[in-house]
Amino acid sequence: MTIGAGLGLSGGSLAALAGTRHHEDHLGAAGVPAYRPFHVRVERVTRLTPSFVRVTFGGDDLCCLAAGGSDQRIKLVFPDRDGGYATFPAGEDWWEPWRALPPERRNPVRTYTARAVRPRRRELDVDFALHGDGGPASRWVLGAGRGAPLLVIGPDSRHAGPTAGAEWSPPRGAARLLAAGDETAAPALSAIAEALPEGLDARVLIEVPDPADAMPLDVPRGVRVTWLPRRGARHGDLLVPAVRAAARALRAGRAAAVPAEVADLPPRPGAGDDEPLWEVPGERAADDGFYAWLAGEAGVVKTLRRHLVGELGVDRRSVAFMGYWRLGRPEID
């Protein structure tokens, strides 16, 4: 999950990742919290495509960062206006003290997806989608150099109990999979595609700003990845018809053809803001072997979910959808 303009996550999803429950609820048998700050530094900055930059972080602390799932969410805490962390609360119970600070004294905090975690090498890869909006994340990544410090809030592998922050979890029996989203979901979608086992009928659709943003992925047989460059079109203009075609084809058990031209457009992003931004089904038997994972701009994701559930009749418990961000709005703190 990456976006320069911030993410429109629900308060519940943020709280679950941040650790707002009582301290005792976060400690495992060994007294290790589920989530905590990790001190890291920039090791490498790699321009992947016109819209994506990969930052590789290093640090001894990363030996204990857990790789909880293909779409594992983490939080990055960026330096304040003075370039440091003087006012950022210490310890794992940082969330409420941070929220209690005056806005001008808070370190900017944004949610991302861990593209790759290599504990033995003490490394973490995070892919940033650049939007040129001048937000704290965009400013930081464009100026980041080797050795620059950062704080990462993530799961500790030593924790004895379960952790949250990963939603990709196809139920047992799901053999036809659809994963789709925009550039903010591209890191998660890429990791999901590469981690799928062979033998499944899986479609991964990724809408990006530019044709050059398509990146090669090492995916198993049966997994088909399609990059959908907008070329200036609205968010969702390509993704919505492509998801509709892929979902109908997967449920019918035939190869899906992504439409070359867009015939029908989704509602404007941001429509229906009273609807939930985040819904992940619990573990259950798959609906007819079909499972969908949708993430990206909230208005587009809601449109996709309404199509699958309302028009195609997919059981809502077989559709995970996440509004990573909302057009024109910053991340909900």
Give a nutshell description of this structure.
With 333 residues, the chain is an alpha/beta fold. Helix content is 18%, strand content 26%. Strand 11, helix 6 and strand 12 form a beta-alpha-beta unit.
Explained architecture:
This protein is of the alpha/beta class and 333 residues long. The strands form two sheets. Strands 1-2-5-4-3-6 form a six-stranded antiparallel β-barrel. It has a six-stranded mixed sheet with strand order 9-8-7-11-12-10, with helices on both faces. The radius of gyration is 19 Å and the shape is globular. The longest helix has 14 residues, at 239-252. It folds into two domains: 35-155, Elongation Factor Tu (Ef-tu), domain 3 (Beta Barrel), CATH 2.40.30; 176-325, Rossmann fold. Strand 7, helix 4 and strand 8 form a beta-alpha-beta unit. 18% of the residues lie in helices and 26% in strands. The chain has helices at 11-18, 95-100, 136-143, 186-195, 239-252, 298-311, and strands spanning 35-47, 52-58, 73-77, 109-118, 123-129, 149-155, 176-181, 201-208, 223-229, 278-279, 290-297, 319-325. Residues 3-26 and 255-274 have low confidence and may be disordered. The protein contains six helices and twelve strands.
Throw out a few tags for this protein.
oxidoreductase activity, Riboflavin_synthase-like_b-brl, Elongation Factor Tu (Ef-tu), domain 3, SIP_FAD-bd, six-stranded mixed sheet, about 325 residues, FNR_nucleotide-bd, globular, six-stranded antiparallel β-barrel, NADPH-dependent ferric siderophore reductase, alpha/beta, Rossmann fold
